[in-house]
Amino acid sequence: MSEFLTHIKTELAAIDADGMTKRERMISGPQGTHVSMAGARMLNLCANNYLGLANHPNLTAAAHRALDTDGYGMASVRFICGTQDLHRKLETRLAAYLGQDDSILFAACFDANGGLFEPLLGTEDAVISDSLNHASIIDGIRLCKARRFRYANSDMTDLEAQLQAARAGGARFIMIATDGVFSMDGFLAKLPEIRALADAYGALLMVDDCHATGFMGPQGRGTPAHFGIKADVITGTLGKALGGALGGYIAGPQAVVDLLRQRARPYLFSNALPPMIVAAGLAALDLVESADDLRAQLFANAAYWRAGLTDTGFDVLPGEHPIIPVMLGEAKVAQAMAQDLGKRGVHVAGFFFPVVPKGRARIRTQINAALTRDDLDFGLDAFRAAGRAVGVI
Ligand SMILES: *Cc1c(COP(=O)(O)O)cnc(C)c1O
């Protein structure tokens, strides 16, 4: 044991020596445009709370009600005695919202992606994955027996080469897997081109739309709707725009969902979502389906923030998504900048290797619909002052 712990401590020391230790800042009270940290009121620019629903009164009221009518916990997986009418209602609702036959709930999208590939694809098949896909897609693919191919992020020439390689290898079925939005850059996947290539090579298309469902595209139906294409399978989360608590899902053709209910391991061997989460998920869908005002506010806020940062002289990645990364180069600079912003009442997180490539460290800002013009101006003033203090503008 002591030898083992010495080994673990050496590992921790190495992480720390590289300046890679992640330190969790403690919030007291709810998630929102501002959070309370050690008594200080901080402008919060790093939550996935795109529509500001994380503490919305409709969601908290729905959760409270479900706690009274349906209890606290299910104490069961779905197929034994963990399925309430609420679960099926949310699954049907999500499927209709996403334009798919049916959907299946998981404890998180990490589990949805972890459980998706293995039941659907076997050794005769191939899966082709974007190099910047979320860790949960990578892990899900590792757990399945299909041949694995990878293409450089959004590189359509490379995707076609991988499709040809998979076909030449005799693959029975091919599935292309991509994030709808790449979370470190805020770039959208090139879904129209990917769909066209998938069709040309007879491949299936899976899109993980965690950073889009609820706010991208008409009625917030996500990146496939934004581009007007159909994805064969969509995975997503209730943990971001749709309330921000937890829960994941897979939506797709009836037979696919039916087979996942029989075979997906994180579904079969893990607890049912608690009723309050499911009820709040339904309340979130009620809101987002008619939240054109919130979506308009979100994109107006994002455009204002992006323009403000650019005018100030920061190197901002181009795009339209409310993920707006400020490029700072070296990890040390990103850390110094995040720290300085903290002192000025703005909470942001620096991202550096291995999360992003070396020399491409950044502060990833995320804008939401609940931020006011005053909040954004306060944030811009702080970024200007911090940028000068750290010497990047
Ligand atoms: C956040 C995220 C996940 C994980 O979702 P959880 O429901 O929090 O497990 C999966 N994929 C992508 C692309 C994400 O951004």
Automatic annotation (TrEMBL):
The gene is kbl. Its cofactor is pyridoxal 5'-phosphate. Catalyzes the cleavage of 2-amino-3-ketobutyrate to glycine and acetyl-CoA. GO terms for cellular component: cytosol. It is an enzyme of class 2 (transferase). It catalyses: succinyl-CoA + glycine + H(+) = 5-aminolevulinate + CO2 + CoA; glycine + acetyl-CoA = (2S)-2-amino-3-oxobutanoate + CoA. PANTHER family: 2-AMINO-3-KETOBUTYRATE COENZYME A LIGASE, MITOCHONDRIAL, CLASS II AMINOTRANSFERASE/8-AMINO-7-OXONONANOATE SYNTHASE. This is 2-amino-3-ketobutyrate coenzyme A ligase.
